[in-house]
Amino acid sequence: MKHVRLGDLEVGRIGLGTMGMSFAYTGAGSDDAESIRTIHRALDLGVTLIDTAEVYGPYTNEELVGRALKDRRDQVVLATKFGMISHTGRRGLDSGPGNVRTAVEGSLRRLGTGHIDLYYQHRVDPGTPIEDTVGALAELVAEGKIRYIGLSEAGPATIRRAHAVHPITALQTEYSLWTRDPEPETLPLLRELGIGLVAYSPLGRGFLTGTISSTEQFGDDDFRKDNPRFTGENFERNLRSAAEVEAVAAEAGATPAQVALAWLLTRGGDVVPIPGTKRVSRLEENTAADTIELTPEQVAKLDGLTPAAGHHHNEAQTRLIGL
Ligand SMILES: NC(=O)c1ccc[n+]([C@@H]2O[C@H](COP(=O)([O-])OP(=O)(O)OC[C@H]3O[C@@H](n4cnc5c(N)ncnc54)[C@H](OP(=O)(O)O)[C@@H]3O)[C@@H](O)[C@H]2O)c1
Predict the structure, then answer these.
(1) Are 169 and 9 in contact (CB under 8 A)?
(2) Whose Cα sits closest to atom 32 in ligand 1?
(3) What is the pLDDT of residues 3-42, one digit of tens each?
(4) Cβ-based neighbours of 85, under 8 Å, separated by 6 or more
(5) Active site residue 56
């Protein structure tokens, strides 16, 4: 696996998102043994960046990752997130300094580690100045509890203000063939400031792999059930984008998932996708995207993909991003 830099932090250029092992998608929590094998296989194949969050479960995903890394902690760049759960009695988002301190202790305990390599604010908290949050995080860096600071789905003004308090290492945001929102403003800003971009849902929550042909495949608690891209007419229209990815994949001698990831790797050495899977076979498939070289013609076709129909988040989630 080739290595790249997120700020000063070196990582394998394809990471692993563990959310779906415990949370949000159909089958979550159904086979922890296979999930743990998937994490181990990732490490064997040179993946280093493992991504979880306090809210995944909640808590159970960090516990699972902690179990998986019991004897392999030193092989991993371990990333987790805080701020979607309040431990101080507030409602909703809480990135107040008191909550940051409580949250980090819980994550360290569940992950079975003395330090977190990359600690993200999961969503910007409109009730707490970002300077106060990053100030509390900088104290955790000084104490050795966390090594690097990240933000997730923060808007440009917040990124600048945060970075002025303490260097921000990575912004985690949705970025994929069908979610190109970071390109006009966010990506140039990150490059100006030397911040890496960690691309979440790089497979379009599974859609770009060509394996989702009907929403009947989703269980009742699957988050995609009320995602605008997966509902009604939008879903039908979006099948066209998936077919276009499949056509390029056939030409490249790769799978659609690999093409979706290889395209992200062409965006620059500061863009690190974290595809999510709870299965060894798919992990192997996704990680092999490291070796796929797309031709300029294939990249051009992917650049011109039919834009997705529907927003990438539902209304409630949309209100929380870009703040
Ligand atoms: N910061 C944030 O707010 C935020 C939001 C969402 C996600 N994330 C992070 O980003 C990670 C990845 O995003 P994501 O899980 O939402 O979406 P994703 O990586 O785009 O897609 C994951 C989905 O695709 C399926 N899949 C994976 N590889 C496949 C393959 N080769 N062929 C067919 N299907 C495949 C998975 O199913 P199986 O598991 O059954 O293989 C899962 O349902 C998460 O795990 C999480 O760590 C962060």
Answers:
(1) yes
(2) 209
(3) 999 999 999 999 999 999 999 999 999 999 999 999 999 9
(4) 54, 55, 58, 94, 103
(5) yes
